[in-house]
Amino acid sequence: MTGGRARAAVLGVVVLTLPLVACGPQPSGRYEEYAALGDSYTAAPWVPVTEAASGCLRSSGGYPVQLAARLHVGVLRNVACAGARTANGTTPQGHNEPQLDAVSRSTDLVTVSLGANDERVFGRLSATCAQAAADRSGPDCRQRLSPGGVDQIRRATERTRGRLAGLLRQVRARAPHARVVAVGYPALVRPGDHCPDRLPWRPEDYAYVASSIGALNAAVRGAAADAGVAYLDVAAASAGHGICDAQPWVNGVHGDRAAAAPLHPFGREQTAIADLLVRMLT
């Protein structure tokens, strides 16, 4: 998933423990080296200070930074990058090195949240639903993405499972003593939702988007099982925090653009993920 314009100062990839305010129970253990791999749902553009130099739009309030502070990590290597695909685990993204390079034998904690950009799943989904809303006399989002009756988004997510499982296995091989967690994506909407002031899609397309994000999370969960690593179910935790809800975890197309990029997580979602990971890891 990709972000928009960057805001404020540049942050380094290697970040020392930051003096963030911690909420919830404090961990008793300590991790020395933490590598955070992911796309823009980990980079969290505009939450709140976002670096621009790398093009990755990593923010100062993303869950890797918060988690590193909560766990008192010695070294954080946050290589999450807007637009990253699973393939960017092993291949460069622009002038950014492969994300897997952040993982070494001394790494003892790794989080991975990738897959939404594989085969442009998220980009095609959001763009096609916007097109369907603009042309209400034509096919809906599902129909446009299902030529010949074959759902291209569902097929793409099925292929993502194998690619992500392969990357997770490589993470385990590089860091055999590390705790590895595959982090899923939040649910954006529920079937029956409709909030055109935030998300100007056809009412029937909300259910299709919910199903598609569910398929993406099923691929991430399956990849984690295939590779023998833990899975963090962010979708389940995000129940009641969809884009149409009172306290959304993800910004709408029309929303508070000073707090998060459109269709990207707010700071409260990143804090919630950090909370969930602290509970899981301790």
Describe the structure concisely:
InterPro entries: SEST-like (IPR037460), SGNH_hydro (IPR013830), SGNH_hydro_sf (IPR036514). The protein has 282 residues and is of the alpha/beta class.
> Which whole number gives the mean pLDDT?
91
Q: What top-tier CATH class fits best?
A: Alpha Beta
The CATH architecture name reads 3-Layer(aba) Sandwich
Strand content: 5-15%
Number of strands: 6
SS field, number of helical segments: 8
Gap between N and C termini: 30 Å
GO molecular function: hydrolase activity
InterPro entries: SEST-like (IPR037460), SGNH_hydro (IPR013830), SGNH_hydro_sf (IPR036514)
Protein name: SGNH/GDSL hydrolase family protein
Pfam family, one: Lipase_GDSL_2
Keyphrases for this structure?
6 strands, alpha/beta, disordered N terminus, 282 residues, Rossmann fold, six-stranded mixed beta sheet, 34% helix, globular, 8 helices
Strand and helix map with partners:
Blueprint: E1 14-15, E2 33-38, H1 40-43, H2 63-70, E3 75-78, E4 109-113, H3 121-134, H4 141-144, H5 152-174, E5 179-183, H6 203-227, E6 230-232, H7 234-237, H8 267-281
Parallel strand pairs: 2-3, 2-4, 4-5, 5-6
Antiparallel strand pairs: 1-3
Helix pairs in contact: 2-8, 5-6
Explain how this protein is built.
InterPro entries: SEST-like, SGNH_hydro, SGNH_hydro_sf. This is SGNH/GDSL hydrolase family protein. Keywords: Hydrolase. GO terms for molecular function: hydrolase activity. It comes from Luteipulveratus flavus. With 282 residues, the protein is α/β, with parallel strands linked by helices. It has one domain (14-119, 155-203, 213-281): SGNH hydrolase (Rossmann fold, 3-Layer(aba) Sandwich). 34% of the residues lie in helices and 9% in strands. The chain is built from 8 helices and 6 strands; from the N terminus they run ββααββαααβαβαα. The protein has helices at 40-43, 63-70, 121-134, 141-144, 152-174, 203-227, 234-237, 267-281; strands spanning 14-15, 33-38, 75-78, 109-113, 179-183, 230-232. Strands 1-3-2-4-5-6 form a 6-stranded mixed sheet, with helices on both faces. Helix 6 (203-227) links the parallel strand 5 and strand 6 (230-232). Helix 2 crosses helix 8 and helix 5 runs parallel beside helix 6. It is globular. The two termini are 30 Å apart. The model is unreliable at 2-27 (pLDDT under 50).
